[in-house]
Amino acid sequence: MCEFLWGVGTGAFQVEGSWRKDGKGSSIWDHFTHSEIRDADSTGTSSDSYILLEKDLSALDFLGVSFYQFSISWSRLFPTGVVAAPNEKGLQYYNTLIDSLLHRNIDPVVTLYHWDLPLILQEKYGGWKNESMIDIFNDYATFCFQTFGDRVKYWITIHNPYLVAWHGYGTGIHAPGERGKIRTVYSVGHNLIKAHAKVWHTYKEHFEPFQKGMVSIVLGSHWIEPNKLEDESDISKCQKSMERVLGWFAKPIHGDGDYPEELKNEFLFLPHFTEDEKNYIKGTADFFAFSFGPSNFKPPNTLPKMGQNLSLNLREVLNWIKLEYNSPRILIAENGWFTDSHVKTDDTTRLMDVTFSYAAIKYDNIDVFGYTAWSLVDGFEWQHAYNIRRGLFYVDFKSKKKERIPKSSALYYKQIIRENGFFPKDSTPNLQAQFSCDFSWGITESVLKVSIKY
């Protein structure tokens, strides 16, 4: 039986809507969108996945995925962020979602934190700037393991901590919108790493023995190539760029427990891990969950002057991960492409990196076991609001029914999943083959709703 995982994903804040419904508390993104982002009024509904769960499930049925990667809205379970008696309506929603997936033989891949921190924790503690968040996050994660862990075998602690730290506390284009000092950015990153590690150890010690699940953290990156392949200076600059972005979190967790030397040499104020902390942090991921595509990692326009070119070659960055981190098992946990907001269902110009994934597996012996197309449905795209779309299913946000209408990309992905690879009529000669039987396909999204039109 084939075990390669094909999936699709979402993030709760992007798709759930119902930000004030059924006792849900406000998150930092609720506050940020209503105070900082224009044209964000419809985040109150978005694709309405909280209300229209059956439509999302129908979309998943249509694709035939083997897993669905979604996040839990922390403030829907605990409006104040502190673990006490859970909000019953929120608890019921996630139990229903998980049970409905399993009924369809779709594995839930659950993200504990996809950026929507309960607002009260930001106002009371300063959010991730405060080391107290490590224990508070662990309490929340522990509740989720206790409550859902009998049915969930794949957990993600934090989605893209680089963006949480860099854009949430540095550039200010993400919630909570702080334009702080670089020292603050790295302090936030430090706390995120330690929070992840603590949650991983909690699961290993108290839940893995009988739940038999796996825990990781989604890390994202750009990919930089030298202008001149023979120029050692250009190559060195590209290596340093990767270390500053992906290596910032990957080296402590997937490497030796410490930051890259590049970061330590450049930022003398960088927080330090003690030897005990290094030993505690290293190895705290059961697989390498990787996010890649056009994203917020795009560097400034000074790249050519620095001997660097931005590239979207997923195969190359997978090879870099293989070499840097001792050939880990890799889940492509987020991969997708933007289209303009006016594009409805004809998104044929939107490419996915499935071909790069296949080439990396077949020709480079990279251990990729799953692929997550992002995202299941159109939703709220963070600082871009509704000016871009990423869904495989089109949603008219102004309609009441908010039908989930499959785009060209959904039809294409559906066929790839059915064939477990590429079909000759659409393949180049070098890519006429199937993925290995232990590959998995998935999709991810934020919490919102869908329905299918045929």
From TrEMBL:
Gene Ontology molecular-function annotations: hydrolase activity, hydrolyzing O-glycosyl compounds
Pfam families found in the cross-reference section: Glyco_hydro_1
Biological process per Gene Ontology, one example term: carbohydrate metabolic process
Family stated for the protein in its record: Belongs to the glycosyl hydrolase 1 family.
Protein name, per record: Klotho beta
Organism: Ficedula albicollis
